[in-house]
């Protein structure tokens, strides 16, 4: 099966390590190398090393790059300082989420947009379409360029409480001074990389963007430097349980084209105070008003009182058996040692501690506790 999929620059490394490979968003990716639970716990207690080269990088540059991204996305990217990053979204005219993104400002006129692998082509297409600007405006469009850089980068991530110690001996970058959601050009193990303090695990960590030809050398250097600190290679399976414990949404589960940022409890990413039009503004204004006056289903956490695992698509029911919501993600939690889930539920059942909530697991109504997200926060 994997022969028909795209492979990253680290495919040979994964195979040599005995990784179980799986198809994901058109890519052959490591699902796990050994024990998913052990990989998860390594990230929580020491450090994990991930290959994320399937992610989609898009460079936006030019004199009006910031103004263009303000129009194309829901955030105010023109206000992001050089060297910082911003979590944001790209929405359709009807307010539905096309993807959630991290955007790095690399220079006064240069931004790096990082899209989910499954949506990268759609995001690239939407950005190119939006260069023309709003239909009611002058037809000149924005003085900006959108460039597909998906093949220009490999992406490695070191995540966990020991991440800074692993990297510390390999780079002269000021790691203590690098803030969360900041990035800088650096040399790591003698290789040029964009070093970012970002991640998707709920732990401290770093992501390294490099040219694909340098990926194996960097992986090897990080592996050697990380050995005394318990660094473990990690696959997509534990990445999913880590982000679930941290309450981080996943596109296709908590976020969809039928969901607005306000439905997902992420209305804060929509910046109505930025000047000018932006795609989806009218629909998102209406969504914000609905959320304030008559909230739709709310995204909550569920912790099982038993051992059966709730999965995406399972119904959430009340004491009478009436359906009051739907699970979006679920898995056993290695940290809580209980099955957990995120679910959209009716507002009447969304308060932490709500009694009588259960998940219909193959016809059996399994009791669950409603809790506030996230399930896990790293120690301060």
Automatic annotation (TrEMBL):
Belongs to the GcvT family. It comes from Streptomyces boetiae. The lineage of its organism: Bacteria, Bacillati, Actinomycetota, Actinomycetes, Kitasatosporales. This is Aminomethyltransferase. One of its GO terms (molecular function) is aminomethyltransferase activity. The glycine cleavage system catalyzes the degradation of glycine. Keywords: Aminotransferase, Transferase. The gene is gcvT. The glycine cleavage system is composed of four proteins: P, T, L and H. Residues 297-376 form the Aminomethyltransferase C-terminal domain. The keyword RNA-binding does not apply. Its EC number is 2.1.2.10.
């Amino acid at each position: 099966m994997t022969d028909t999929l795209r492979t990253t620059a680290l495919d040979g490394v994964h195979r040599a390590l005995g990784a179980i490979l799986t198809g994901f968003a058109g890519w052959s990716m490591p699902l796990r190398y050994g024990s998913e639970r052990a990989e998860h716990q390594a990230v929580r207690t020491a450090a994990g090393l991930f290959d994320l080269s399937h992610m989609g990088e898009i460079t936006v540059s030019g004199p009006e790059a910031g103004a263009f991204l303000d129009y194309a996305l829901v955030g105010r990217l023109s206000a992001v300082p050089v060297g910082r990053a911003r979590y944001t979204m790209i929405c359709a005219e009807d307010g539905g989420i096309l993807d959630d993104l991290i955007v790095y400002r690399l220079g006064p006129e240069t931004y790096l947009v990082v899209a989910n692998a499954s949506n990268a082509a759609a995001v690239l297409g939407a950005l190119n379409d939006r260069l023309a600007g709003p239909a009611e405006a002058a037809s000149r469009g924005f003085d900006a360029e959108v460039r597909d850089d998906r093949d220009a980068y490999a992406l490695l991530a070191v995540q966990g409480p020991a991440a800074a110690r692993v990297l510390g001996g390999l780079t002269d970058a000021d790691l203590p001074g690098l803030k969360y959601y900041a990035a800088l050009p650096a040399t790591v193990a003698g290789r040029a990389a964009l070093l970012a303090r970002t991640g998707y695990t709920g732990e401290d960590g770093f992501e390294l963007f490099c040219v694909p030809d340098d990926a194996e050398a960097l992986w090897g250097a990080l592996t050697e430097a990380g050995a005394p600190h318990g660094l473990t290679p990690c696959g997509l399976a534990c990445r999913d349980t880590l982000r679930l414990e941290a309450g981080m949404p996943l596109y296709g589960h908590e976020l969809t084209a039928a969901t607005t940022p306000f439905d997902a409890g992420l209305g804060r990413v929509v910046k109505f105070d930025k000047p000018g039009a932006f795609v989806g503004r009218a629909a998102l204004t209406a969504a914000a008003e609905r959320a304030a006056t008559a909230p739709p289903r709310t995204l909550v956490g569920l912790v099982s009182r038993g051992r059966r695992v709730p999965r995406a698509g399972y119904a959430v029911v009340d004491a009478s058996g009436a359906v009051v919501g739907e699970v979006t993600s679920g898995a056993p939690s290695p940290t809580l040692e209980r099955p957990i889930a995120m679910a959209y539920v009716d507002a009447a059942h969304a308060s932490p501690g709500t009694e009588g909530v259960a998940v219909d697991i193959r016809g059996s109504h399994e009791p669950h506790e409603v809790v506030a997200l996230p399930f896990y926060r790293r120690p301060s």
